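Consider the tokenized backbone below.
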């Protein structure tokens, strides 16, 4: 027996082959452990590609060849075998935060059909999955006993959460499958949040220069503040009532939700999506290069700029003041939404649909506004072009040098000078 800092590892060479079936497909099963029984354990499909599964299995078989252990991905027709279920499950959340959990620490491998769980999926790396399967296999073989209280003695990893408060400062922490809570004058800087990780900022906490990607999440709520956050590559950020986000940048496939009276200041939206709703306010926002901003349900934008490839869409009671639409940017107003003081520059495009209203706009040369049925453009100064379609309306319009208002069949232009 070897002892490595309290970790007991007993090498084993077994005469009888031990088969371990790796189930990546998801299952409704049970946990019949030495400490605890859970009658219903729902394991989700791990969503791994065949290529990744083959690599994992080949690596494990090579690693365990000397111990006469064989890993398979199909149930064997005869004989006993252990099963390791790989995929996310919440069945053990109330007992701890585990990456893996075995039913037994089976010294001498007396039980040939005991099982284990690996609480990871495709968001984890192959190395993490292999390491956790290996850890739980060693428990089932009885070659690994690292001690611990309760289920932790059978777990691959007890993943620690972070609590940053009372003036404490953290720097450079990377989260994956664990969480960080920032509150009561706590400050966290340069945190990286990956798949399965989350940051919660509230009650006087501050997060600065956080990077959220690959399915990571951040939530900022009452009294919390997030400065200079980057949301990228399927990361998500949520800002709720009383929360403030300053200088957030949303890149490729990132998503930012500002809701229920929260505030976003100096946001940059590129190749990602942002939703402003329920009384939330976004100030001095820049949208471009595939960025999309949706403003609804009492959400408001103050001083927004949309440039080439960017879209802003106001709908269902959304509102914007002081918006600028630059070349090849798009600005939409519909469904009881409104916009005041909109400047549409050269090659900028604005579209007003049913229920939408745009007031006091300036349409520069080569800029254009299209007013569709039920939409209204009011008090516009036109140096570019306004086109009014059936049942659309342009009222109190001032046409300056080179400007043009075109009214198609059924459209209305009222008080045009």
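A designed sequence for it:
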């Amino acid at each position: 027996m070897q002892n490595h800092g309290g970790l007991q590892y007993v090498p084993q060479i077994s005469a009888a082959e031990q088969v371990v079936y790796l189930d990546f497909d998801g299952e409704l099963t049970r946990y019949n452990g030495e400490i605890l029984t859970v009658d219903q354990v729902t394991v989700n499909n791990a969503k791994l590609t065949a290529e990744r599964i083959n690599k994992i299995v080949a690596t494990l078989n090579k690693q365990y060849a000397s111990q006469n252990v064989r890993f398979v991905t199909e149930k064997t027709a005869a004989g006993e075998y252990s099963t390791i279920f790989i995929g996310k499950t919440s069945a053990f959340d109330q007992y701890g935060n585990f990456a893996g959990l075995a039913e037994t620490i089976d010294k001498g491998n007396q039980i040939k059909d005991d099982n284990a769980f690996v609480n990871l999926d495709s968001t984890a790396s192959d190395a993490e999955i292999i390491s956790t399967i290996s850890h739980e296999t060693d428990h089932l073989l009885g070659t690994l006993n690292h001690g611990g209280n309760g289920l932790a003695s059978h777990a691959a990893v007890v993943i620690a959460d972070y609590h940053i408060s009372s003036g404490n400062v953290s720097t450079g922490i990377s989260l994956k499958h664990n969480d960080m809570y920032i509150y009561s004058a706590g400050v966290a800087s340069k945190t990286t949040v990956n798949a399965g990780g989350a940051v919660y900022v509230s009650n006087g906490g501050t997060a600065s220069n956080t990077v959220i990607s690959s399915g990571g999440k951040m939530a900022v709520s009452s009294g919390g503040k997030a400065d200079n956050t980057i949301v990228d590559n399927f990361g998500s950020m949520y800002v709720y009532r009383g929360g403030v986000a300053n200088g957030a940048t949303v890149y490729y496939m990132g998503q930012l939700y500002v809701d229920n009276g929260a505030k976003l200041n100096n946001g940059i939206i590129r190749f990602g999506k942002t939703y402003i709703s329920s009384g939330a306010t976004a100030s001095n926002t820049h949208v471009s290069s595939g960025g999309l901003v949706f403003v609804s349900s009492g959400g408001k934008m103050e001083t927004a700029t949309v440039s080439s490839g960017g879209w802003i869409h106001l709908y269902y009671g959304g509102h914007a003041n002081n918006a600028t639409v630059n070349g090849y940017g798009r600005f939409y107003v519909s469904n009881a939404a409104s916009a005041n003081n909109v400047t549409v520059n050269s090659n900028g495009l604005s579209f007003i649909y049913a229920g939408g209203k745009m007031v006091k706009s300036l349409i520069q040369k080569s800029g254009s506004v299209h007013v569709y049925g039920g939409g209204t453009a009011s008090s516009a100064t036109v140096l570019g072009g306004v086109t009014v379609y059936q049942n659309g309306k342009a009222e109190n319009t001032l046409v300056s040098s080179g400007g043009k208002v075109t009214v198609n069949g059924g459209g209305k232009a009222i008080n045009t000078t």
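Residues 1-6 have pLDDT under 50 and may be disordered.
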